[in-house]
Amino acid sequence: MRTTCRSCQGTRLEKILDFGPLPLAGGFLDGPEAARNEKLYPLAIHVCAACGLVQVLEPVDPEILFQNYSFSSSTIKPLIEHFEAYADWLAAWARPRLVVEFGCNDGVLLAPLERRGITAVGIDVSANITEMARARGLNAITGYFNPEAAARILDEYGPADVVTGSNAFAHNDRPELILEAANIVLRDNGFLCLEFMYAGDLLEQMQWDTLYHEHLTFYSLATVSHLLKRFGFYVVEAGRLPMHGGALRVMAARKPEARPSAGVAQLTAYEEQTRLNCAQTWRDFASRSKRKIEIVAEVFSALSRNHSIWGYGAAGKATMWVNAARMNYLGGMVDASPLRAGKLMPGTHTPIVFPDEFRAHPPDHVFVTAWNYADLIRSKEAWFRGTWSTPLPDLRFF
Asked: What's the predicted TM-score (pTM) here?
């Protein structure tokens, strides 16, 4: 268990939420035998009283978290569109010849970069996911992005113009290893570009359901800037993104004289205005989150006595909702991913089914656990005449 903050290295770490032992958010189970042997891991959320960084201090071994990983980005249309646009942005902003991506998943960014004539090399710890990328003819390495891996990439491909990671940097207990690796493989005038879930969206939308074992850190612009400066990186561009219910993109250069953009100034002002990096802000967030979980648990427990209820979207958010709100009465969890359908939900062991099973046996009510994709889900299932509900940012019924 960590005793220091990942950003400022301070020791004034305060527990604000404790979920107790929980299954892993992506720990989908192959069947009854796996369910009987399911493991639970402690999950407590802390805030640094010095810099305001929200973080999980007791990480689960990455070998447990990310082997046989169940999240394939190329199965989700909004993510495909995001990475197509991101490839365009990188091409226009940095004009790179070589991009190195850590946490490359199944190659959802590598592929559009290659189509634009940019050499792209990916690395990811998940063996099953990198195998999917290699099957598509992409350069994907299985392993950790650390100084040793960076040196090997440098020897084989030469210096990179861009090192990037989307939804991966904040998953690391030791982000300093990634930054050391980036310093090794980047050319002097290269850029480090990171995309991660933003603490501002966590606060605004009360996204407590993203606080799970895999998501170790929720950076703000201020906290990530402090960390980057320790390793010689200076933020020159920053902007908010809709991805995953709210994310932040930062571009950092290795020149301290590099001038930040207007976007950096705007986000800095926003964080000061909202007191985003104050511990009290997160104490209040924790109290409101606990009450939201209690309300959902009460409402849907009562509803389940006379109505059939299914969930939709077997993502990490779903694991958090069904376990924290004790939703063991769901008849099924709908998901289109072949990596999840046919398995059981962590904790409650609810069967995960393909959408055709949902159409064959429609329930009275659907609780959209993947609430950030609710509009897309409802448009795909426009035939459904029952009731929909989304828990965040507000509890709503349709």
From this structure: 0.91
52 close to 222: Cβ distance less than 8 angstroms: yes
Question: What letter does residue 245 receive in the DSSP assignment?
Answer: G
What integer pLDDT is reported at residue 99 of this predicted model? 98
Instruction: Give just the sign of the alpha carbon dihedral 363, 364, 369, 375.
Output: positive
Length of the chain: 398
Q: If one looks up domain 306-397 in CATH, what number appears?
A: 3.40.50.720
Asked whether 210 and 197 are in contact (CB, 8 A), the reply is yes
pLDDT digits (tens, 9 = 90+) for 32-80: 888 999 999 999 999 999 999 999 999 999 888 776 665 667 777 888 9
Q: What is the pLDDT of residues 314-346, one digit of tens each?
A: 989 999 999 999 999 999 999 998 889 999 999
Adjacent-strand bridge partners of 311 = 333, 367
Q: Are 312 and 290 in contact (CB under 8 A)?
A: no
CB within 8 Å of 174: residues ≥ 6 apart = none
Burial (CB count <10 Å: 0-12, 13-18, 19+), residue 381: middle
Q: Which residues lie below 8 Å from residue 172, measured CB to CB, with a gap of 6+?
A: 178, 216, 217
Task: List Cβ neighbours of 291 (8 Å cut-off, separation of 6 or more).
Answer: none
Task: State the DSSP code for 344.
Answer: B
What SS3 state is found at 62? Answer: helix
CB-based contacts of 85, cutoff 8 Å, min separation 6: none
Q: Are 184 and 154 in contact (CB under 8 A)?
A: yes
Rounded Cα–Cα distance for residues 327 and 310 (Å): 10
**In 3D, which of 207, 113, 230 has the Cα closest to residue 160?**
113
